[in-house]
Amino acid sequence: MIKIAIAEPSSMLRIGLEQLLRELPDAEVVFSTDNLNALYSRINALHPDVLIVNPLLFDYTKRATLRAEFDQLPNLRIVGLITAYIESQHQRQFAGIIELNDDLQRIKSTLNQVVSSLQSDSDEPDTDPLSDREKDVLVCLSKGLKNNEIADELNISVHTVITHRKNIVRKTGIKSVAALTVYAILNNLIEQKDII
Known about the structure:
By secondary structure, the chain is α/β, with parallel strands linked by helices. The chain has helices at residues 11-21, 36-46, 60-63, 88-91, 104-121, 132-142, 147-154, 158-172, 177-186; strands at 2-7, 27-33, 50-53, 77-82, 96-99.
């Protein structure tokens, strides 16, 4: 049974989506909410497999790094519930997209793809490439910047910097800054002359 959480500010959409998902035999909606505080507290307690979330629930600055908001749940698959225009780079972070006019068959197909990726990923190590923002953080690290300096440079919070650093370590398997600097040079993210 796949556990699904829904985060949607519109009661009508949230309740309608819950009703549609009840028709799926292998899925169970474990909770739905319209506010972020409830989402954060309940998601950590219930550990759903899939989160269907409307990015508009988050302020604009957090939409680009929405995945990082749930870094403590690395197996969580996030599906974007798109009800308005969202920039394509923000959509890329989602494991799947459900649009406002999708019918049950389309929603089912999207969730099946997400669930199958969830099942296949459990057998394999994390080999995801670094995101553009993680590369930016890695470049700053290689230049010798501290977390607060990276946050200022990239206009993100220190918490987000730490989250990106954890993701970089998880994805590369490299823990030391010196080794990460070598990784950045070998992957043409930075040139040797740029290192202090």
